[in-house]
Amino acid sequence: MPATERAYTALAYDTVTGRVLFDLDLAKEPEWSARVNDVGGWKITVPLHGQARAAKVREWCVPWRFSVAIVRGRGVPTDTVCQAGPILPYAPDDNSPEHTVSGKGFWENLNRRVLHARTWNPATARITDSSADLTINDSLPNIAINIAYHATSMVYRPGSALPLDFPVLFPTGANTRTYHGYEMAFAGQRLQELTQVDGGPDVLFQPYLTVIGGLRYIRHRMLVGNPYLVQPGVPLLFDYRSNLVKLTIAGDGTDQANTAFVKGTGNEAGQLYGYATDTSLISAGWPMLDMVDSGHTSASEQTTLDGWATADVALYNSQPEQWQATVLADAEPRLGSYLPGHFADYSVKNHHWLKNGKYSYRILGVSNGPERDKVLHQLQAVRGS
Known about the structure:
By secondary structure, this protein is mainly beta. About 15% of the residues lie in helices and about 40% in strands. The radius of gyration is 23 Å and the shape is globular.
């Protein structure tokens, strides 16, 4: 019986070097998701028929030691790598000869790196010592690049290197961030927090497949925006009922707010906090709606806290709708010609809910679709825009 031709290939690679070690057999099409400013993830199911095949799976299915790349195509350098990152949970099926393996995107590596100055030496100084502190005075995009650089090039701690390509630095700026070693916060957390401030940069770790010395490698490009990612070429256009197959829309005002309080360090009367408000909707008849953001309780700089509050209001003061566009993967614009964080036009006609017209939104995330020839776009949409 001939093997099923699949739309995707899965490759197991060395997490530290990126070298591809195995082409994986798949029992079904993989699942994957990629999202700007976030981790993303993947899931595969592999067959376990026979002890030889099971032994091979046991060889590569080792969390953190190896990673998996989901590739649309046959696994050659011209193919699009949809998602790639470390193996985490796995579960052989007791009722059938199948084995499920899941993981996350490259960002997850940084979620397991305590952020400190790359020159801190744990053999000579405690992490509470000032030598572990990392202070960066620069533009927000360059601060993002420096966070990743310090987390992947530690001088006195082995194992920090990863197959990561850094972008060219942006023009310098006047922003300051101090990350104290004693906070013992993860680099991935600090990077995500930076993307969330007002004017914070988009960050995406884009995996790609390359050949070096005749061997295949998975590497990751760190893409950083100012604040948005650079989008080359002509604007993306998806036409309803053509390459745009379906639009699923859901509205939810649960998190809507026109005033944001962001908690920082301290407690009781000494509580530091950021504050921002926008009364434009209140003037149009909306009630006052407050939110309290407790996700930054280690922050101690007022300008940073206010920046998070401003960003929260900008995000939640609108009338949010969750749009999911189902598009054809191999019709123009093809998967691989755009990335999470890019903007696209969605031309709509004769939709049950939407007015006819062209809607321009940012693609927050891309994932596999319900059929092999389709992918899903998660969009940053606002009702009535």
